[in-house]
Write a structure and sequence with these properties.
11 strands; seven-stranded mixed sheet; single chain; mainly beta
């Protein structure tokens, strides 16, 4: 069983920055791609960003490209999401997730490909 614990959410104003962290309990963390998803009130969960197991390649949703940066520190079993120039439409609960398959070549944008999820952290951006 893998435990993922997110932190770093909060209430900020439009244009501010936040850094989310997700700590994983799995010793083989470095073998799996990691993703960030979000769910806004009344909407389904959507893909935000993902990073390959090695950290070499990343994928972003168009809505956050150029503003958000995903990174990972395999020595600390932690993945990060740096969020800059935040907008009110970024308001959501943010979840980190771990890929169900080790050593996937291209990080997936599909929820189904992730089998472990954190509890979520709330990000609220006021205008």
């Amino acid at each position: 069983q893998v435990q993922l614990v997110e932190s770093g959410g909060g209430l900020v104003q439009a244009g501010d920055s936040l850094r989310l962290s997700c700590a994983a309990s799995r010793r083989t963390f470095s073998s799996y791609a990691m993703g960030w998803f979000r769910q806004a009130p009344g909407k389904g969960r959507e893909f935000v960003a993902a990073i390959r197991w090695s950290g070499v390649s990343t994928v972003y949703a168009d809505s956050v490209k150029g503003r958000f940066t995903i990174s990972r520190d395999n020595a600390k079993n932690t993945v990060y999401l740096q969020m800059n120039s935040l907008k009110p439409e970024d308001t959501a609960v943010y979840y980190c997730a771990q890929d169900r398959s080790a050593y996937r070549a291209i990080p997936s944008q599909t929820e189904f490909e992730y089998d472990y999820w954190g509890q979520g952290t709330q990000v609220t951006v006021s205008s």
